[in-house]
Design a protein that fits this description.
The protein is mainly β and about 325 residues long. The protein contains 1 helix and 26 strands.
Length: about 325
């Protein structure tokens, strides 16, 4: 019996399966900075405030001076932001803030409601500022949707990487952001996450395969959803399928699955977990179980703005001299 269930092309955002809601993949070749954390380039011809068309290799998204996503609300789920290249400046309605990137991961539980901004400061003024990040939306079960918001940093230095070779001595490198692999365990997720219960078998890995490398994926319990997102490379092979880049491979994770790379280095993202199996009703930045809860979320946000916005600007950034750091709502600051 084939372990490959389905192969489908990647759109924007990437489709996911329960307990995940979707994954946004951003890769932008930003030019050098202008000294004010924006691009040293003309913005003419862009739909400023809504720039999602890749022009000259990059986008401003909702940013007007600095690329990124100014203050916006969330309720009822979690965001997991994996930044492989570049930097993200975080600010939120709890007064928390941070600058992270180049391998760091932020795990934020929106819970009962939070506003946050995610800006992409272009610190380098002498060279380009490439950005590559994934933002994964992980659902919360009904009994956790209204928990107190929380954010946690998984710093690059603390995230384990498994480096192995296949029988032909081709290298495979797997970064374990959530879950376990060969006795390696990722840092703990946010405390109210679906991922905290090991029985839910949540796994989030990024995978780099050398040309011609072969990897056999470990099996899981029955009923666990697993998808592989092949986002960089040329082609990979499994069970008679030739799978080109920019495709998702949905597999039966309880069966052995062997993936062989082609002649170009391949990069993949793995998302895996036990489904929550509850109704999902989405309206923009709110994810609840029914329409009444969505209307309540909209009404509450209109009335309270989830605590308001404590920063001077909705596209708040932290200045060109600031390093990687996390400032938590209780005033604790961690510098890296």
């Amino acid at each position: 019996m084939s372990s490959v269930i389905k192969i489908r092309p990647l759109g924007f955002p990437w489709e996911t399966n329960d307990p995940f809601l979707f994954c946004a993949y951003h890769e932008d070749q930003y030019p050098r900075g202008n000294g004010k954390l924006g691009p040293d380039a003309s913005l003419e011809g862009r739909t400023i405030g809504q720039d999602f068309t890749i022009k000259n290799g990059w986008r401003m998204y909702h940013g007007r001076r600095i690329p990124g996503f100014p203050a916006h609300p969330h309720r009822g789920f979690e965001t997991i932001t994996i930044v492989q290249k570049g930097l993200v400046d975080h600010s939120d309605s709890l007064g928390a803030a941070g600058r992270f990137g180049n391998g760091d991961v932020q795990w934020m539980t929106a819970g009962k409601g939070v506003q946050h901004s995610e800006m992409f400061p272009l610190l380098n003024t002498e060279k380009e500022n490439p950005l590559l990040l994934f933002q994964i939306w992980l659902n919360l079960p009904r009994n956790k949707k209204m928990v107190t918001p929380h954010f946690k940093m998984l710093w690059q230095e603390d995230i384990p990487i498994l480096k192995i070779s296949d029988t032909d001595k081709n290298n495979i490198e797997i970064t374990v952001i959530a879950g376990t692999l060969d006795e390696i365990t990722a840092p703990p997720p946010a405390p109210d996450s679906w991922a905290t219960d090991l029985n839910n078998e949540i796994a989030i890995w990024t995978i780099k395969m050398a040309p011609n490398a072969t990897f056999t994926f470990p099996t899981t319990s029955e009923g666990i959803n697993r998808s592989l997102y092949f986002f960089k490379g040329k082609e990979v092979f499994s069970e008679g399928y030739t799978i080109p880049v920019n495709h998702e491979i949905i597999v039966n994770s309880s069966q052995e699955f062997i993936l062989k790379n082609g002649d170009t280095e391949a990069h993949l993202l793995l998302l895996q977990g036990k489904p929550i199996n509850e109704p999902v009703v989405k309206h923009g930045p709110f994810v609840m179980n029914n329409q009444l809860e969505i209307r309540e979320a909209i009404h509450e946000y209109q009335q309270t703005e989830f605590g308001g916005w404590p920063w001077d600007e909705h596209d708040h950034v932290h200045g060109p001299s600031k390093g990687r750091f996390a400032l938590y709502p209780d005033g604790t600051e961690i510098k890296k």
